Amino acid sequence: MSTPDSTLKKTPTENTEPVTENAWSKLTAFTDARVGLGRSGISVPTKHLLAFQLAHAQAIDAVHAQLNIDELAQTLSQQAWAPAGKPLLLHSLAVDRATYLQRPDYGRRLNNKSAQQLDAHRAKNTQAYDLAIVVVDGLSSLAIEQNTLPFLRELFHQLDNKKNDWTVAPICLVEQGRVAIGDDVCERLNAQCVLVLIGERPGLSSPDSLGLYLTWGGKVGLTDAYRNCISNIRPAGMSYPDAARKAVYLLNEARTLKLSGVKLKDRTDDNAIDTLSDNRNFLVE
Amino acid sequence: MSHPHSSYQFRHVLGGKTFGFVDLADLMAKATPARSGDRLAGVAAESAEERAIAQMTLADVPLSLFLQQALVPYEDDEITRLILDDHDKIAFAEISHLTVGGFRDWLLSDLATSDKLTSIRQGVTPEMAAAVSKIMRNQDLILIAKKCHVKSAFRNTLGLPGHLSTRLQPNHPTDDLTGIAASMLDGLLYANGDAVIGINPATDNVQQATRLIKMMDEVIQHYEIPTQSCVLTHVTNTIECIDQGAPVDLVFQSIGGTQATNDSFGFNLANLAEAQAAALSLNRGTVGNNVMYFETGQGSALSANAHHGLDQQTCEARAYAVARKFNPLLVNTVVGFIGPEYLYDGKEITRAGLEDHFCGKLLGLPMGCDVCYTNHAQADQNDMDNLLTLLGVAGCTFVMGIPGSDDIMLNYQTTSFHDALYARRVLGLKPAPEFDLWLDKMQIVQNSDQFTLNARLPDAFYHSLNRLTGGHS
């Protein structure tokens, strides 16, 4: 038996004030969406308008922040779980952020120096790689700085746990890159598949979202139909263990089927973590 | 500026200069109002003068030439085959003598009534629509689109003159059902959601899609909402959902204007036909049988490297041939989503939104627009206000509605629930008639003629909210 929520009764019954508050504004406890803003007439009230403008200003700033690639490489090389070999520091053909934003084709290819660096690495190392992991700044270096380490720790933990026996190439870090630059890396390292970690474009509430793209047999020219994506990995989004579990599932499936993309369905028995434990929601109980 | 050359199909002499264009695709691209995606593709005019000359040259091209010269080879592309094989010569007869320039005059003239525009629809190819749009000003795109009436229906009637509908888009970054329900409640209480309640799933698989489809179906049934639901997952997933017995209202797919683009999206026309047949077999519509929901956007073909040297707006218009084949309930051009490499700033986004809406309506599609931008584009809320207002004037079928303009899953900004009410109030537009009656019945609106919301929480929702936020004993 539920008792009445007294605050629901306090809501106005007439449009008598300039700002009409919404009785359902407490739903913000259950979502980051901008619900229950209230209204001035039918428009957004001043305080919410200005909060939005601030969030937009911060997101614009996030797009233009530069990844501290040396620091990330050093941190990664100190991790016990990291694959053998120093991280490889790479750069796309896009020389700066302005070029990057207008020329996605440049962001998909390594510059000459990086290409030569990988070719030299391949020539020196005879072992076959099952997997290349490519960390790319994308549109949010904040996402990379914040999520790369905890996600990879969890990924390697799960890969190891399952005795999957993946031989992983040294981690590659790429500046001014897009998803498809992983194909260039995969092909040059002659790895069986590539997992790209990339900063997704910042949202107003999520300047820090990491995306994963798995491509079997990555090579230059593949389209997105050949990839599987796991999105929105961040503290307030998909958790690192969940993301790693999906990634390991997809990696194993890809290796079994020797493909990725549309024909590889994510069938992880994985209902997202609900506030309510079953599939009910408060609107229909 | 180009030099005279024997390989030019089109030439234009201005003073001492001769401008040449190698073929129809080149002429179309160079006549296109400036945008970053065409510069990226290397197909844009090299100067403002060359663009203006291309527009003059294009204006002299007979419409019938588009039936003789395919911009993407017939043998290589199932969309070209669709466009040419399905072309209605009887409908075309009325305009078959016109040039592109003459077509603009005819469309603007009083000869082109709403009924007449309906009757020529199947005689207009996407390339003809794209061509004429390239020589139009924004006000032409608005004026003619407003004359094109396109009705579609499932559980309500969309596209009636004087109406503006919204897709309620309750996306959540982990597909959390309580979070989704919160956004749905917010939207419904702001009188949004008549076009569709449509979720972009964060986790894109058959099981998750089924779970979300069931959840929305329960809400729609519980409150007897005259609207429809859709999970925006891949068409092959939706077919599996239907096979497994999920209550699917609408089938979604992102579509492009070349076969190679759609290959990159992982589907073909046969998949769409199969999905449409599967959805129709469920027989869930109450006032109509339009079961498809398509999304498009300029730049998708180039981004898949599948544009065949065409400009992005011509590719976009060709996608409408795909949509038209499957009698959709909704077609949505997601105009500012793809990013600044295709549409650089607010001005380019605005132009593209008006072009897409015009071309879609001229071809007979229930055209809506996701008036939106990303945080790496040169655009802001003021640009969105402008485009929303212009599209409202143009008779746009629907726009998006989302809490506070902020999509916390897809990470972009689109129109808010409040924005839709602004457009309805300032332009005197109403939601779909069946939905309008429901808003009144549920006491969500106080006065539907003046677009005033009820200040009091409607009883039906009081009980739901109290369950969530009230105490338990």
From TrEMBL, chain A:
Its EC number is 4.3.1.7. Its cofactor is adenosylcob(III)alamin. The keyword Nucleotide-binding does not apply. Keywords: Bacterial microcompartment, Cobalamin, Cobalt, Lyase. Pathway: Amine and polyamine degradation; ethanolamine degradation. One of its GO terms (molecular function) is ethanolamine ammonia-lyase activity. Adenosylcob(III)alamin binds at residues 179, 200, 229. InterPro entries: EutC, EutC_C, EutC_N. It is found in: Bacterial microcompartment. Residues 1-20 are annotated as: Disordered. Binds between the large and small subunits. It catalyses: ethanolamine = acetaldehyde + NH4(+). It is an enzyme of class 4 (lyase). Catalyzes the deamination of various vicinal amino-alcohols to oxo compounds. Allows this organism to utilize ethanolamine as the sole source of nitrogen and carbon in the presence of external vitamin B12. Belongs to the EutC family. HAMAP family: EutC. The basic unit is a heterodimer which dimerizes to form tetramers. The heterotetramers trimerize; 6 large subunits form a core ring with 6 small subunits projecting outwards. PANTHER family: ETHANOLAMINE AMMONIA-LYASE LIGHT CHAIN, ETHANOLAMINE AMMONIA-LYASE SMALL SUBUNIT. This is Ethanolamine ammonia-lyase small subunit. It comes from Marinomonas vulgaris. The gene is eutC.
TrEMBL record, chain B:
It is an enzyme of class 4 (lyase). Catalyzes the deamination of various vicinal amino-alcohols to oxo compounds. Allows this organism to utilize ethanolamine as the sole source of nitrogen and carbon in the presence of vitamin B12. Its EC number is 4.3.1.7. Keywords: Bacterial microcompartment, Cobalamin, Cobalt, Lyase. The gene is eutB. Its cofactor is adenosylcob(III)alamin. It is found in: Bacterial microcompartment. Substrate binds at residues 167-169, 200, 295, 370. Binds between the large and small subunits. Its main location: other. It holds the Pfam family EutB. The basic unit is a heterodimer which dimerizes to form tetramers. The heterotetramers trimerize; 6 large subunits form a core ring with 6 small subunits projecting outwards. It comes from the Bacteria. This is Ethanolamine ammonia-lyase large subunit. Belongs to the EutB family. Pathway: Amine and polyamine degradation; ethanolamine degradation. Adenosylcob(III)alamin binds at residues 201, 253, 303, 409.
